[in-house]
Amino acid sequence: MHIMNKDNQNPGTNSATNKREQETEIISGSEILIRSLIAEGVDTMFGYPGGAIMPVFDALYDHKHEIKHILVRHEQGAVHAAQGYARVSQKVGVALVTSGPGATNTVTGITDAMMDSTPMVVISGQVVSSLLGSDAFQEADVIGVTQPITKWVYQIRRVEDIAWAVSKAFFIASSGRPGPVVLDIAKDTQVNKCAYSYQKTHFLRSYQPVPEIEEDHIRMAADLINGAKKPLALVGQGVVLGKAEEELRAFLEKADIPFGSTILGLSAMPSDHPLNFGMLGMHGNVAPNIKTNECDVLIAIGMRFDDRVTGDLKTYAKQAKVIHFDIDPAEMNKNVKTAVKVCGDAKQTLPLVTALLDKQSHAGWLSEFKPYVQKEFDCVIKSELYPENGGEIKMGEVVHKVTEATQNKAVCVTDVGQHQMMSTRYFKFTQSRSMVTSGGLGTMGFGLPAGIGAKYGAPDRTVCIFVGDGGLQMTMQEFGTIMEYDLDVKIILLNNNYLGMVRQWQELFFDERYSETHLKNPDFIKVADAYNIKGRKVTQRSELDEAIAEMLAHKGAYLLEVVVETKGMVYPMIPSGGSVTNILLGNGNKL
Amino acid sequence: MEENKTLYTITIFSENTVGVLNQITTIFTRRQLNIETLSVSPSAIKGIHKFTITTFSNDEEVMKKLVSLIDKRVDILKAYYNTNEDLVHQELALYKLSTEKVMAHGSIEYLVRKYNVRILEVSTDCVVFLKAGHYEETQGLFEELAESIGVLQFVRSGRIAITKSKVERLSDMLAKREQENQEKWGNA
Predict the structure, then answer these.
(1) What is the CATH class of B89-160?
(2) Which of A278, A418, A564, B124 could serve as A285's disulfide partner, Cβ 3.0–4.6 Å?
């Protein structure tokens, strides 16, 4: 038995000698926690210290070379950054916060990660175990608060449980349908000591991450697709999470199936793929929405039929036989009646079905999409992306110019609102894991910190963060994080001095009564300047190309504020609760 | 009893960890389902707890979704639902009566025979009856006692139930999972 020398730079390695030493080593809970994280491959995490987590931050001080800790400016920023990191890197995002307010500040991000199936482990300090339940200083019932919004939560009250709990947390967060896990760790367990050895968890008897594949369902799915005259596929984030992009491509191409994507599935396939007809849902593209109600077989892959995708379920795809590929059996028949359930990991199930498919061509069916593509271009896209000179700058044209200037290779991070829909509509993708946005929860304030995390997750890629003037101000303090770590992120602020999406609904559905949606904004460029972030405000269309080029050429963070159309509208739009075929095109245009 | 609604019995097997009940009830709450009865106890398998919950619903689809959401939780081993026809089920009820009033009543033998009552305790102050049966039976005795003798205290347990059909046994499912794990990961 010995206490490990603090100068040892590499205590987490698995060399045989080191392992033998570890088995007999008595170390503090904090040291165990850090080494367990290293054993799980964690090299980056986002956090904020405080009383009940101080021993862990103290242990972290000895491991600076192995784990990079990013000090954010608010705990909400830590979780969103961990989400952004996880979404682009395929790794588990980690956030480290203190008890009480530190933990409760993470609630929004945890909920967001649950809705969007993001693998994340949030570690929160907790008051010493003898004080639990006594309303101690900075005590909050973190387990009670986070249990309904997590995949798993666990309160660690014994130092002996730390390594085991971390191992279980990472297994649960990253396996099956990923999700957030919270570990609430009492302060005394961080200080107490015990022997350390680490074993990765691969199995829990109560938890089946990937359901068994049912052979007859594979056959039934293939038969339906082989018999289909008008198949349509809906691509969701499950494809990205399951790393099944290539399997999806082979599947779609063999049977010549056109597809639309959910907002989170957008970058799973290249934007310019000939079968790709764009985004589904409320502000999605016209063709895939219309064709949802005309197809004979609807093939959903790793998506969950969110109401923003389906609109009114009573009129949704009633003519179609639905095949649903998903790793989560609870999604089957949840919203849409399914003819064939293909439970399992898409990376395995897609090739099994593909092998049974006939090579097909659906040229006639595909040609039916074209008029809708043209109609949408003529009525909506043309004026949004290529407006005539004069008049205010359009949101869509800014996104379009940025994606072109990055050769469609950048990571697109967005906040929530009109600029988000413009980004998802007009940003184009050439590689997977390039769209980071708050889909299910619609969390304003997500963009800036998620963009910080995305930059750490993909340091070699250009990260473009699109934000609105409302959402930016919800987490604008993270400018401080960008400054401290000298992060090269490109922030594109589409400023219309409105909470634009709410304003749009007020215009359409509330008789233009603009209740509490106009914003008197600060000088954002001055704010950025205070944080040593280079900024430029563009009000004229003529400056836009040059300003974008300057932003992308600049080494380091850059805020490009574009003053856009005050009362811009996002079209097409399916009004909430309406049918997917009830599409508004705006400007008096009709389908 | 609620009109036009079916009483469903949900059976859940879980790891015996802190907070499982909270995980389960949250799912009922989100679906706006009211728990009628609840019974929790260690199951036949060491370390695994069994929950038997009853709830009214007019839509079997809701039950399917409820059960799949419960089943999905990491600490839950298995969850399923049944209706009364599939089950042998039982509740227990205890009735505390005043000894003086029981003695004055004079027809205890009739009650004991009619309701198959067991007498657990007789003291100078009180008599305690036990009755096992379905809700209607324990309720029937309660109503008759309340009218004729008066009931000092009354308590009824949650339902416990066993399925009539042959279902996959939990122990078999666990053995299969353990075996698959062994094959995949060995003793690592």
Answers:
(1) alpha beta
(2) A278
